[in-house]
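Hi everyone, sorry if this is the wrong subforum. Our group has a chain we'd like a structural model of before ordering constructs, and none of us has done structure prediction before. Sequence below.
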Amino acid sequence: MLKKGDRISISYRTGKDTKGNYLIDTLTDAEVEEYTGSILKVRTFEQVPGPQGDEVEIKHFVFDVNSPEFVGALPE
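Answer:
Right subforum, don't worry. Here is the predicted structure as tokens:
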């Protein structure tokens, strides 16, 4: 069972290409914020250039693990 603070990689479908094949994206090194029922909330940290050097951008994602768009999650 996932708990707050766990580090995971998540794969999910982002759409289809021109041939109808699914496009898959992966969030690496995501941190679990909450896992309740079938809803998984995670956040990722990305370094982005800023006016005074690199800054950290925090992105939040919410997945329904029962949705066909959700492919899977693996521990880091």
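For your construct planning: The chain has a mean pLDDT of 93. Residues 45 and 64 are 21 Å apart (CA to CA).
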